[in-house]
């Protein structure tokens, strides 16, 4: 059985003799004489076409405080706005959400401190097993990599049981509080989405067994890249689960695909970027869309992002809500699949939504 170090370390290309081995992107960037990226980091399949961005295109903004204000008219208006955002964009920016800015900054700083730990302390969590509750790695999770991607990551299972490294000091407590608060926001949003689909507010919570719902905490480190036009932080993908909440350290890099065009997202300070996941698309029978997005890199600053996908319980079989299916006018668009099985399938690098999408008769 391979040791954690053997799992992570790969041989560097011969074009870079000054880099004896590839451990992490951070170590690669900090190696002596590093000026250009190795050829196996050159992601030419999908070039960085950020110039295609439309500066007049901005994702919708949702004011969370109006959703929880107690005013039924304000709540109804926000639910309509969420419904439109999930249908037309699959993304929205959430402001006035009540999670303290100090906590958001503290968790970003804590992640930065984790990535700055000595290599041997991070390698304790290096594994290819996606079901390890604490996992440190580099690149992407898919089992067959043709390219190396320009990111290092730490992922922990945050719910229904919380896991986290004990170092750096205080990191676990900050991550736990952040996950708790962000999950509370997610639960409120899913109540609103239940209503937008025509259900009672607890419909999704009950149908998806959210009391035992699976929450992942994933922190990504994107060091400066000397040739950002050649590299990719995370390739185009959709997220499993219901909703993902994302924050970053004010260094842009997220791009989403809207109407066939990639464009940069510039979040407001102290906001969450929220995107609908594959399982909300499935549950809504295609009414809501799980949108392709990716992370690009830059040559000046280190970007840190934290994604918190929230999904059903791992044993929940997800299919279109029966109330949204009519065999004649609105047939089921997706086959049922257990959430855990779907995650396994996605991490084999296969386009999962297409695998569970039923043919149109």
Describe the structure.
Mean pLDDT is 89; it is low at 1-7, 9-22 and 47-52. The strands form 3 sheets. This protein has an 8-stranded mixed β-sheet. A 4-stranded antiparallel β-sheet has the order 6-11-8-9, with no helix packed on it. It is globular and about 65 Å long. A hairpin with a 2-residue loop joins β8 (254-258) and β9. It has helices at residues 4-8, 25-30, 64-67, 72-88, 101-115, 119-123, 171-196, 203-207, 278-283, 339-346, 352-356, and strands at residues 61-63, 91-95, 134-138, 152-159, 215-222, 234-237, 243-248, 254-258, 261-264, 272-276, 293-295, 303-310, 317-318, 337-338. The longest helix is centred in the middle third of the chain and has 26 residues, at 171-196. α4 (72-88) crosses α7 (171-196) and α5 (101-115) crosses α7 (171-196). It has a domain at 69-312: Jelly Rolls (Sandwich). It is an alpha+beta fold.
Low-confidence stretches: 1-7, 9-22, 47-52
What structural category characterises the helix and strand content?
alpha+beta
Overall 3D geometry? globular
Measured by DSSP, the beta-strand proportion falls in: 15-25%
Biggest sheet: strands, sense, closure? 8 strands, mixed
Q: According to CATH, what is the class of the domain at 69-312?
A: Mainly Beta
Superfamily (CATH H level) name of the domain at 69-312:
B-lactam Antibiotic, Isopenicillin N Synthase, Chain
| Number of extended strands | 14
Instruction: Give the second-level CATH assignment, the architecture of the domain at 69-312.
Output: Sandwich
* Average pLDDT reading: 89
Order of helices and strands: HHEHHEHHEEHHEEEEEEHEEEEHH
> Taking strands numbered 1, 2, ... along the chain, how are they ordered across the largest sheet?
1-2-10-7-12-5-4-3
Domain Fe2OG dioxygenase: 212-312
Region (Disordered): 1-21
Pfam families: 2OG-FeII_Oxy, DIOX_N
Protein name: Protein DMR6-LIKE OXYGENASE 2 like
């Amino acid at each position: 059985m391979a040791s954690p170090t053997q799992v992570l370390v790969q041989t560097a290309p011969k074009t870079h003799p000054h880099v004896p081995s590839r451990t992490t992107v951070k170590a690669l960037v900090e190696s002596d004489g590093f000026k250009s990226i190795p050829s196996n980091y050159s992601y030419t399949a999908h070039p960085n076409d950020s110039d295609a961005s439309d500066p007049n295109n901005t994702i919708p903004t949702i004011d969370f405080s109006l959703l929880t204000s107690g005013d039924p008219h304000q709540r109804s208006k926000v639910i309509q706005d969420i419904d439109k955002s999930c249908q037309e964009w699959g993304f929205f920016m959430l402001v006035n959400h009540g999670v303290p800015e100090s906590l958001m900054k503290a968790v970003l700083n804590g992640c930065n401190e984790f990535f700055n730990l000595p290599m041997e302390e991070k390698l304790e969590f290096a594994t290819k097993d996606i079901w390890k509750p604490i996992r440190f790695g580099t690149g992407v999770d898919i089992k067959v990599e043709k390219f190396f991607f320009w990111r290092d990551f730490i992922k922990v299972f945050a719910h229904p049981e919380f896991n986290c490294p004990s170092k750096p000091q205080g990191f676990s407590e900050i991550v736990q509080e952040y996950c708790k608060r962000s999950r509370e926001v997610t639960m409120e949003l899913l109540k609103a989405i239940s209503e937008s689909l025509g259900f009672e507010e607890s419909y999704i919570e009950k149908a998806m067994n959210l009391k035992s719902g699976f929450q992942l905490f994933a922190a990504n480190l994107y060091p400066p890249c000397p040739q950002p036009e050649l590299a990719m932080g995370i390739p185009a993908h959709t997220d499993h689960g219901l909703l993902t909440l994302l924050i970053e350290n004010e260094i842009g890099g997220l791009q989403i695909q809207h109407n066939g065009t990639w464009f940069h997202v510039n979040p407001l300070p102290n906001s969450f970027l929220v995107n609908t996941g594959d399982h909300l698309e499935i549950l809504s029978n295609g009414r809501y869309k799980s949108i392709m997005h990716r992370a690009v890199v830059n040559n000046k600053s280190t970007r840190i992002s934290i994604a918190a996908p929230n999904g059903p319980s791992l044993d929940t079989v997800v299919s279109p809500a029966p109330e949204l299916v009519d065999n004649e006018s609105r047939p089921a668009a997706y086959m049922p699949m257990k959430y855990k099985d779907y995650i396994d399938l996605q991490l084999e690098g296969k386009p999962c939504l297409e695998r569970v999408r039923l043919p149109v008769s």
